[in-house]
Design goal:
The protein is of the alpha/beta class. It folds into four domains: about 230 residues, Thiamin diphosphate (ThDP)-binding fold, Pyr/PP domains (Rossmann fold, 3-Layer(aba) Sandwich), CATH 3.40.50; about 40 residues, no CATH class; about 160 residues, Rossmann fold; about 130 residues, 3-Layer(aba) Sandwich (Rossmann fold), CATH 3.40.50. The protein contains 25 helices and 17 strands. The protein has a seven-stranded mixed β-sheet, with helices on both faces. The protein has a five-stranded parallel β-sheet with strand order 1-2-3-5-4, sandwiched between helices. The chain has a five-stranded mixed β-sheet with strand order 12-14-13-16-17, with helices on both faces. α21 links the parallel β13 and β14. α4 packs across α12, α6 runs parallel beside α7 and α21 packs across α25. The radius of gyration is 28 Å and the shape is globular. The termini are far apart.
């Protein structure tokens, strides 16, 4: 008998007796492993919360009650239980099921998430609104111990404790974010996991009182009075309690009956409560249990072996960056690397192994990472902060206030610039040019290929003085147009081919898509110049003069939104220089959030693939030829 086949909503789940829920959990795990082996997705984090998700949907009615999944990539079981099981073959595919909670997808998803450490702030907002409206529903946050390294969590807990609103924080403690957790919070939670002293001391007090013949109600009253004192004396949970949040736990996160009992016991407490549960990332699937980091996000894989179906090894820009950092660290003793809980994703694992004292993993704390880098730079070191484009957004104020105003030599290695594909709108790196290029003192580079990327890294670390950022994409590091490549000089673009009064200006690796278009147009007899921008900010003054003197029609191509992008900034510079007689066309992503699909599909959809670029330029050239 299949239990999962009969679950189409949480109301179906509640028809099962508690003793049947373990069987349901097994079926859900099998479903997740089989489904994700075909589609890919976040595997180990979801396997770890199957029992918790069942228990939450068993105890609450999330058509009324509110739940916010921190980060949200662990919400697959929640989606299965809330009527989306049949859509899992479309997971993270174009026009398919999102890999994160989406309010547009279901009434059971109450808040869009994708970045870490936001859920407690969100549920406090829900709780405050509930009380203002005089309504009666529960609000629940499910947050991992990795997310607890984010400073936003403490701002939220401080506010929640002060306001004393009824809310429930489920701390899902699996001792992992993507990589192994670091820092004092990780140590604090470890001490909570292994603190039997509270129970032992209570037993000792009882035994002591019994020796004096103090028993019954009297012993219970004495124990009750001493209970809080004992707890604060011996347990390390004092931090949460002092913030005004009642701490309960830790409890086994894979014991469904125990979870249901605990949740039902705490859900009606009229103050903030933190329920600490212990889970194992990858639980129930041996390969994922043994290597939870490797199975955090997976491509399609063989269920029996756990091995990826596509075994072709390609060198990515993250790989190129990591290898360069190792070589450079051997020569430059002042070079240090900073990561915000992403040593693996940013290519720094080998650096960490060889130079552990020079790799600083600050946890999920991008704001702190930026200022921390500033302190290192002020002290004579050359800090390189490797961070995904979408996550650097969190450090925007610190980039301006703490780095660029002081003109400190901090290198921002911005990985996953441009669209990243199936993680969707919260992870697309299409805003970094816009939020960085207007900041004074900050230089921004974009390499067209692997060789240029290496030159830009060398330039940024060894030759530049001041804050500098290099943006590069997810994916294979190609060597397009690497022949006769010019050296990097400050604020100088690269003119690959000067020919005629029409120019294509490429920003970064999108030149891979431009190259076939350019060559096709040349074959068709058009005289077109090809320019590699290199410096996004500041824009090359000689480029402005070149446009003024030689070009009538300019096409800029970039993998950023238009507003604040290279194309719009170039237009601003031309206006500033009183150059008004040029036709400029920008090929970029529109000023909107980009949903999930493959990178190739997104380039096709928005006209940034070879065919789309060709059609746009050809159409405009046709209008030019026809005098339109």
């Amino acid at each position: 008998m299949s239990y999962l086949d009969n679950i189409n909503s949480p109301s179906d789940l509640k028809k099962l007796s508690i003793d049947k829920l373990d069987y349901l959990a097994e079926e859900i795990r099998e479903f997740l492993i089989e489904s994700l082996s075909k589609t890919g997705g976040h595997l180990s984090s979801n396997l770890g919360v199957v029992e918790l998700t069942i228990a939450l949907n068993y105890c609450f009615d999330f058509s009324i009650d509110k739940i916010v999944w921190d980060v949200g990539h662990q919400a697959y079981t929640h989606k299965i239980l809330t009527g989306r099981k049949e859509l899992f073959n479309t997971l993270r595919k174009k026009d398919g099921l999102s890999g994160f909670p989406k309010t547009k997808e279901s009434i059971y998803d109450h808040f869009n998430t994708g970045h870490s450490s936001t859920s407690i702030s969100a549920i406090l907002g829900f709780a405050t609104a509930r009380d203002l409206l005089g309504k009666d529903y529960n609000v629940v946050s499910v947050i991992g111990d990795g997310a607890m390294t984010g400073g936003l969590v403490y701002e939220a807990m401080n506010n929640a404790g002060a306001n004393n609103k009824k809310l429930l924080i489920i701390l899902n403690d699996n001792q992992m974010s993507i990589s192994e957790n670091v820092g004092s919070m990780s140590k604090h939670l470890s001490s909570l996991r292994s603190a039997p002293e509270y129970i032992e001391v209570k037993l000792d007090v009882r035994q002591f009182l019994e020796r004096f013949n103090i028993v019954g109600d009297r012993i219970n009253k004495i124990l009750e009075k001493t209970k809080e004192g004992i707890k604060y004396a011996v347990l390390p949970n004092v931090m949460f309690e002092q913030l005004g949040i009642k701490y309960i736990g830790p409890i086994d996160g894979h014991d469904i009956a125990g979870l249901i009992k605990a949740i039902n016991n705490v859900k009606n407490i009229n103050k903030p409560v933190l329920l600490h549960i212990i889970t194992k990332k990858g639980y129930g699937y041996t390969p994922a249990e043994n290597e939870p980091s490797s199975y955090h996000g997976v491509a399609p894989f063989n269920m029996e072996t756990g091995k990826s179906i596509n075994t072709t090894k390609v060198e990515t820009y993250s790989d190129v960056f990591g290898k360069f950092m190792v070589r450079e660290a051997n020569k430059n003793k002042k070079l240090v690397a900073i990561t915000a809980a992403m040593p693996s994703g940013t290519g720094l694992l080998f650096f960490k192994k060889l130079y552990p004292e020079r790799l600083f993993d600050v946890g999920i704390a991008e704001e702190h990472a930026v200022i921390f880098s500033g302190g290192l730079a002020m002290s004579g070191f050359v800090p390189v902060f490797a961070v995904y484009s979408t996550f650097l957004q969190r450090g925007y104020d610190q980039i301006i206030h703490d780095i660029c105003i002081q003109n400190l030599h901090v290198v921002f290695a911005i990985d996953r610039a441009g669209v990243v594909g199936d993680d969707g709108d919260t992870h697309q790196g299409i805003f970094d040019i816009s939020y960085l290029s207007h900041i004074p003192n900050l230089t921004i580079l974009a390499p067209k290929n692997k060789t240029e990327f290496l030159k830009m890294l060398d330039y940024s670390i060894n030759k530049h003085n001041g804050p500098i950022a290099i943006r590069y994409p997810k994916g294979v590091a190609n060597d397009t147009y690497s022949e006769n490549e010019q050296e990097i000089s400050f604020n100088k673009c690269e003119v690959i081919k000067q020919n005629g009064n029409i120019a294509i200006i490429s920003v970064g690796t999108i030149i891979d898509n431009i190259k076939p278009t350019y060559e096709k147009l040349i074959d068709e007899g058009y005289n077109i110049s090809l320019i590699n921008a290199r410096f996004i900010s500041p824009i090359d003054k000689e480029l402005i003069n070149n446009i003024k003197d030689n070009f009538d029609y300019i096409f800029t191509v970039e993998d950023n939104v238009f507003k604040g992008g290279f194309g719009s900034n170039l237009i601003s510079q031309l206006i500033k220089n009183e150059i008004f007689d040029k036709k400029i066309y920008n090929i970029s992503f529109p000023d909107e959030y980009i949903d999930h699909a493959t990178i190739k599909e997104l380039h096709q959809k928005y006209g940034l693939d070879t065919e789309g670029i060709y059609k746009t330029i050809k159409n405009k050239i046709g209008n030019i030829e026809n005098g339109k």
